[in-house]
Every structure is written in C-alpha cells, then in structure tokens.
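PROTOCOL LOG
Step 1. Enter all chains and additional molecules of the complex.
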Amino acid sequence: MNAELSQKQRRFNVDEVRAEFPILNQAVNGHALVYLDNAATSQKPQAVIDALVHYYQCDNSNVHRGAHALADRATAAFENARASVASAINSPEAKQLIWTRGTTEAINLVAYSWGRANLKAGDEVLVSALEHHSNIVPWQLICEAVGAKLKAIPVSAKGELDLEAYQAMLSDKVKFVSVAHVSNALGSINPIEQMIALAHEVGALVLIDGAQGLAHFDVDVQALDCDFYAFSGHKVFGPTGIGGLWGKKALLESMPPWQGGGEMIETVSFDGTTFNQLPYKFEAGTPDIAGVIALGAAFNYLKQFDRRELLAHESELLAYCIEKSKAIDGLVRVGEAQHCASVFSFIVKGTHPADIGTLLDQQGVAVRTGHHCVQPLMQNFNIPGTVRASFSIYNSKADVDALFAALDKVLSFLR
Amino acid sequence: MTLPTMPFGDDITTEDILDTLSFFESWEERYKYIIDLGKSLPPMENALKTDERIVRGCQSQVWVASELRDGKLFFAVDSDAFIVKGLLALVMAAYNNKTPAQVIDFDIESYFEALALIKHLSPTRGNGIKAMVHTVQELAKAI
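Step 2. Run joint prediction.
Step 3. Record the structure below.
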C-alpha cells in the first residue's frame, strides 16, 4: 500500500466505530448490550441503514428496465454497488459478481448449475469436516442425483484441516473442492491458497465458502486463484438476504442458468429462449435492489480503513479473551487452530452450553450456543455444542471483561 | 411400563408455580427456582431415551416418554440442559396426571406468558420446548 493512500485512510478508533453502530447503544434485560454473536450476523453501521432508507425514500424503482429517472437512478446505484464490491475483492470485471441471497444460495447455484452439467457417476467432490451445513447439503444433493461421491477432509483435534490427508484424497476422480475460508464454529482459517493450488494440480475446481472470511479481512480472488468465492452481505456489515457469488468468467459463461424468469433472458419464444449475458443470466427475477445498494455502502464503509488495522484489533480481543479464559476453572476452548479469526468457542465442564447462553443473555451478553450448524464437526469433537463468542471491529476489551464477569456469575449459579 | 411418579401436575400445580415465581424479583431467583424444579423430576431411565422419544433442538435435546393410565397421561421427561429440564417441569405441571381433554384445553401460551418465559416457546431452532409441547398436544388429540 503506498503512503499517499494510507494517509487518506481513516485511523481506526474503537469508540468512534462503535458509535456508528446505533443498535449497540441499548440495554438488554437491564444491562448494556454486549454483542458477541458477530459470526452469526454483524451489526450495521448508520451508513448502511441510511443507504437502505435513502433507496426507499428517494430512488425505489425496478432496475434495468424502466424508462424514467427513478429507474435510471436505481439502476445506476445497483450497478455501482456491484462495481464497488467487485473491486473490493479484486474481480477483473464487475460482471463476474452475481448477486444471490447469500452464501447458501451461491453454493447452491454452483452445485446445481455447474454440478448438474459436469459431475457424473464415479466423480468425487471434497468438502471438509468443519463445513457449515450449507456447504455440505447442496453437494450431498447433487452427488446423490448424479451418482458422484462426497468425501470429507478430516480435521485435527485443534480444529485444523489435515493437509496431508487432503493431498492423499486428491486424485483425478476429484472434480470439485468446496471449503470454508474460515470455520464459523471455531474460527480456524484454512490454508486455502495451498488447497486451491493442490486441487488445480489434479484439475479440480475450487469454491471458497467465504461467509466468515470477508468479515475479517480483504479477499483478493485473483491472488487466491479460486474458481468461485461465495459470501453473505449480512456478516460483513450489510443487510440480510443479500450476498454474492464471484466466479471465473469462462466458467460462469459455460454454466447453464439454474433459475428461469425475467431479467435472465434475452429473447423468449415457445420455440426456445436465449439467455442474457453475465451476470444477469444468473439473476432471475427482480433482485434485492435495496440490499445490493446497502451492501455497496457496507463495503464503502470498510474501504475507509486499512483492514489490517481492523484485523489487528480483533486479534487483540481474541488474545485478551484467551488469556482471561485461563482463569475459569473447567473452561475448555474448542478449536485452537494456529491461524484463527476472532472466534472463541468453548465449553465448561459440568455445564451445558444452552444454560450458559440463557444466563449470559439475562446479563445482556449475546453469544451463540449449540452446534452452530456444523453437526459433523461437533460429532468429531464428541460434544453437543459450544458457547461461541465472536468479535467484530466494534467490540472492545470492556466487552470481553463483561463476558467473563457474566460468565463468573453464571458458573457460580450452575455449579 | 409404569413410569415413575413425579410431583408435577399432582403436588405441584401450574398455580403453585405461578404463585412462587411472582415472589421473585431477580433473574437469579427465577432461574434458580426453574433449575431446582428440573432437579426434582425423577430420573428418566436411559433405556427410555430412544431416538423415537427425542425432540431435537439446535441448542439442547429433550426426551419425552408417555403412557395412558386410567384415562390419564403420565410422562417421563429429561433434557441435557438444566434450564430446559426446569422448563420441562413447568410444562409437566400442566400436562402430567391429566386427561387428554385437559391437555388439549390447557392454554400453554398464556401460561408461558404469565411465567414471562414466552421466549422459550419460540418455534423451531431453539431448545425443543415448543416441539415438545406440540408432541404432547398431538398425543392427546390422537387418543
């Protein structure tokens, strides 16, 4: 990064950032809210909320078709947002970014469109044992339909993918690898650069489930050399219900549409239909225009900062949390990958995660408890679930202190 | 099979529970009481904890076994989480040792609202309480 650019960038200050997220300023059950469920969904800065409101107050109109000023404004804002998000992930062209409802729909799009056209009996698809259900089930469905085989790359007791086992599993039968950038339940950052290169050596394509990736760091799809990157807007300070699929252009162009409707066609007749160009070929129906525009605002919000500074803040919170957790008798951290995003998953011996979650909530502390939609991973560790505290840019050390003060109280109660 | 007797729906009624809870002011007291209620449920035999008797929630699990004796429904229940087990005891005060007609007629939503525990009855994904209530109601209707 050149010096001129960094001078233009805004220095990170947690108090300032926190003040820009209005939802955080509230009491829950009589206590100031301590929001530590960021891996489930992040809160939204005022700029994102304003973009949503502005769209409905001033520009609401259908995109790409109206012959009037509002439609022109809505279309421009919609496509500007695409350009903005595409450039944030270093896409060569904006049209390689397809809007979806989120990561889940993006993975389903690839599984159904690419999978149905290319997978056949005897082929293999690899996922890992730490995948979210949404990066398992679409592949299970398509593999079942075409007679292909789905295999899981094993995960170590520390929550790290077993690269040696992965290498041993790669053969010319493997046509597709779909892995998480960051584990939602444990925070493990997977060695995706290496995994992508290894998959390409046997001619397999790779999709990265980036649901938990973009929330923490910049992603450069060209440097990664992944074939697809899927993400959700709501985990990266944008609205719910909007996300994206980035793909290599030649691949996207070769893939058949998977949902039919308006917007995705060029001409329609009962003799046959010709399809629209990228990205519209995959965007049937009126899109979530407000969501797209507000997601663009979320990326613009992030662009003010050097994201390495934000990441350093989150890492500091995680380190502080790990340190404080050592004082709690019986607390066992689940997942201790060497490279880890700011997720702290734990159990406390003799207690159930659900009880801890309920009683933390009574004290205004919001965490997630349960299996985190990764049942195979929980089976791997032989536990019913964990308590997960996940940190974002607006959390502070005071939030970590509040978590442990509340946890102390909970444990005095449950044990 | 005769399930062990429990105090709920017999010695301990829904009125008793509402009455006791109304004295508490802090969440600590309320939840301590709920957890203690759960502890006073008779242990459920492991042999009864079969897959057919499990009500899955994404945060905790619930097991429900039932039998009809002399026209009344009797239950054995358990959960892996203390608070959920306590909530099961609250539900048992309404449903155990009752005729199917009494089970169907009982307004469980209002009861939970009065307990200020309505959030625990939220559908799906949660702790299995809602699904368990539904299971018991369907059971009563089928008799």
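Step 4. Note key features.
Chain A has a mean pLDDT of 95.
Chain A touches chain B at residues 29, 351-355, 357-359, 362, 369-371, 373, 384-385, 409, 413-414 (CB under 8 Å).
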